[in-house]
Batch of 2 targets.
Target 1
Amino acid sequence: GALWVPIVGQIAPIPAVIAIVENAVANGVKTHLETEVRGIKVENGEVKGIETNNGFIEADIVINAAGLYADEIARMAGIDYFEIHPRKGEYWIFDDDVPGPRRVLFPTPTPISKGIVVTTEISGHLMIGPNAQDLPPEEKENFATTEEGLEQVWEGAKKLWPRLPPRSKVIRTFAGLRPEPTGGDFIIKAEEEVWGFINVAGIRSPGLTSAPAIAYEVVQIIESDLGIELKEKSKWNPYRKEISHFFMMTPEQVNEAVKRNPAYGKIVCRCNNVSEGDILEAIERMKFIGVKTPSVDSVKFRTKATTGTCQGSFCRPKIVQLLAKEYGVEPWKVTLKGRGSEIGIGDVKVLLRGDGA
Ligand SMILES: Cc1cc2nc3c(=O)[nH]c(=O)nc-3n(C[C@H](O)[C@H](O)[C@H](O)COP(=O)(O)OP(=O)(O)OC[C@H]3O[C@@H](n4cnc5c(N)ncnc54)[C@H](O)[C@@H]3O)c2cc1C
């Protein structure tokens, strides 16, 4: 038997967050990206601000939405009644010439998770996963896939989709960590001991689906528990600045785009038809929201470049060059996914000179 749920939906989570942040910045929000919270200043039972690696930021209200690290942030404010442990979920992704289901196929959920799902992702790739493996709280950076876990996903998916393609069609495996709180439920509340400190912690799956409702609840908490009246901005713009993707354009639109900017006529990612124009627009949007360290993943999540059959083998060097030029840095300062993941170590001649640069 099966349960038919016609209202089920899918979104691409990272592009959704990027879109929301762009819209927030367009409406006047100031971001402090690449800024780590290292302490919370509390005086006479009231929150005063946060200590960061980029200095002190004064604040009357601090909303702790730090995912896996929400327990550590809460402890900085003296609140220690809960702990977060990671629950790992692993996935396989197949090449886009492999047919997948037109609907999301779920097994019967368990008390632990929604189960191993078979779906055709927004990008058109068949994807299977996730499993659910509890890890100790200190393993919040353990994003490694495991042979055991991936086999479990494969076996689980086969039950729903017996026509699973051969493994030679797999282009990527990866793992994510869900933030599992003590008590097993979301912790959304203004903490009484520290006025102005609101926990939005332990936002386990399905936290993404719940995010809009959680935001409304936080508004209510600020108004009713903290007694602060919030006013909707009169000139709030609900729309994100329109974005164009070469792979979605009709031939007429391509002609227009190339006339406007010849960079749209140069294909950088051949697997997914991503043009240099798309990448330059992504970089402009990164700068708009305050991304300081250029990274290939920032371009990947905005354009789909590097996510195709070759997984970036051909286009990554070109993306690095474009990022280096637009950010005005040496190519080896470009990172994979932020500071500490620099792709190169220096220019070959410098290495030969042995001056340690
Ligand atoms: C395998 C898997 C499958 C999932 N499936 C679904 C699903 O089908 N449906 C669904 O709705 N949800 C799903 N989820 C859950 C969803 O991804 C989470 O619920 C959601 O991302 C939690 O959002 P959050 O904002 O609380 O935390 P996060 O998205 O983790 O954001 C926390 C942010 O805080 C930042 N941060 C942490 N510490 C600090 C610090 N000291 N200083 C500054 N910044 C800090 C982090 O860098 C991060 O950007 C899944 C998750 C996983 C891992």
Target 2
Amino acid sequence: MEQRKGAAVVIIGGGVTGLSAGWWLARSGVDVLVLEKNIVGWEASGRNGGGATHVYSPFGLEEQRLWPQMDELLGYPTEHQPYRIGVALSEAQLALARRWAEIGETRGFKWELLDRRQLKELVPIVGDNAIGGTYLHFGGHANPQRTVQAYAWALQDHGGRILQHTTVTGLTTRGGRVTAVETTQGAFGADTVVIAAGPQTGLFADMLGVFLPLAPARVEMIATEPLPLMRHGGVAGNGLYGRQTLRGNLVYGGGPHEWINVPDMATPDHPNTPLVRNLARRLAELLPGAAHLRVIRAWGGVAENTPDGLPVIDRLSSPDNVILATMSSVGFGLSPAAGKGISELVMHGRCLFADLSALALSRFADTPPDWRERAGWISTSASVAETAARGSR
Ligand SMILES: Cc1cc2nc3c(=O)[nH]c(=O)nc-3n(C[C@H](O)[C@H](O)[C@H](O)COP(=O)(O)OP(=O)(O)OC[C@H]3O[C@@H](n4cnc5c(N)ncnc54)[C@H](O)[C@@H]3O)c2cc1C
């Protein structure tokens, strides 16, 4: 295979994880190359809900610290907006919203319990079916597509390179190390390889003889026509998460997932399913003042999931120059911190600002190969209705 100019660090995958890691590395002066089989952000990174409220994560404190600075650090807008409001339509939903708020409190963040009147003052489109809610003085959301582009431009501003339409097909291993990354455009030499290929990260782990339990799932989103801007655009509840865009659209998604297989390097299709109607009905329940708005767009994306819902960010012991980075459905919000953590793993051998032991691959050492079936996570042959009955995101 033709050998092309490689880089000190080759990153497989131009989603937010790979791009953020590449940007942090490039701004530290590291020679970095991102290989992306489509265009940057084509997969989950450009299709998600934009939520950035993951304070329970080892990356959570850094996520909250970094987001308000990201526009300035990157030099391009992400449309980040702070705060998050939880709307409860039942006592069970209120208990859930409180649980999330209290997790934030244990990490030093403020929140308030809201009665219906207070809730309506903040979110005028809430209806009389709401019993109350939570006002998180933390968390937030951003525009996924602008954020992806911001990472990509900022990475290049610092001298990093991105090759789009370049599919990685294999890894050349010699002397216990990956020495080159094989692609449809030739092979690229590398000192260190970061595998941030979203749901396909598990396939690369397989190539290296490493078991990374990962289940891909299709998730749907809808966007309504615009309505006047609310004070806070990040409103969640009724099993939905989402945001109001700066144009005024409500963009919402949520469970149920449709579990699928990603058997090879093929990009999964993203057709919409009947889940879209289910999302629209639940959004009208959550925000009755917006029930008259039309759904103007809908799309699907494929999210990656580990058995415990936490990312895997780990440097392999063999080959010892490979870092696996897959985010288990929470990768957008965590991307500023995850990218920083990955860059530190590359440069210093460990993350300097957080203890990543909870994200180590070794926690799945005893996970059986049929873990998906045991967990009741099923493949695309099952009907959507059957999947819906099994729970939501
Ligand atoms: C509908 C939806 C809503 C979501 N909502 C939220 C949310 O509100 N907040 C949140 O934090 N997270 C959310 N997520 C999850 C979040 O989007 C993902 O965790 C995150 O985008 C993962 O980023 P990534 O870069 O690790 O992977 P990806 O975005 O999947 O990127 C991986 C990239 O690798 C490329 N690639 C794969 N194989 C190869 C190959 N062989 N060669 C070259 N390139 C390859 C792919 O083309 C892709 O661009 C949501 C996901 C979906 C689908």
